[in-house]
């Protein structure tokens, strides 16, 4: 059978593809069946709270065995020692990237990064600033009276000061955060859709090309690929749209 991805597999490496496919709402078997339609030279994979809580480290190991780099999206938020040790446990699993909530504070973020560095791990550590599901009213309800944009900037700068590698942000925030935090600070953006895609529950969507132009380093893409009748071709179409 002809492998329609063969030219892309030959031409691409994990270093050039910015796509991170989100394996959401799925069991271990379904996640692996989907992973088998993708290829580790064309994308990385994101394992989130639901899949990890159902399947545990076994899912991470099974994906790694297939050659995929894994973003473990567990958004740790706890006291400094617990946060740092959870990050270390993720690094021990050999994940490519893991994250915490920036609102767990400077001390927790800095300690987690310090332990990774001391342990000689190259796992990237990033933070979530303000969840994109939160609006100004939700922030006020938890006692944050800053403008949402100001709060995002503040937490991104705190994340950078603590030595982390970047933040998750919406593509709409990418330009501003790139200017504020500089080129080396990684921006990971969800809410990515091709023009012909369903926006699902995402309020503010952006095309892969626009997100990269605005400064995104990695694109987290879920349902456009995972709900597609042909995830292989969909990933290929997305990569072509960004000239990969
Ligand atoms: O299916 P879709 O492409 O919308 O999936 C986006 C992924 O990014 C999901 O795993 C979602 O939980 C995650 N995410 C998000 N918005 C954030 C942070 C993470 O959509 N602010």
Verbal overview:
An 8-stranded parallel β-barrel has the order 1-2-3-4-5-6-7-8, surrounded by 7 helices. Residues 7-14 have low confidence and may be disordered. The protein has helices at residues 6-11, 28-35, 49-55, 57-65, 80-92, 106-118, 136-141, 148-161, 171-181, 208-213, 223-226, 231-241, and strands spanning 19-23, 44-48, 70-76, 97-101, 124-128, 166-168, 186-189, 218-221. α6 (106-118) links the parallel β4 (97-101) and β5. α2 runs parallel beside α4. With 244 residues, the protein is of the alpha/beta class. The longest helix has 14 residues, at 148-161. The structure holds cytidine-5'-monophosphate. Cytidine-5'-monophosphate (C5P) is lined by residues 22, 24, 48, 131-132, 168, 190-191, 200, 202, 220-224.
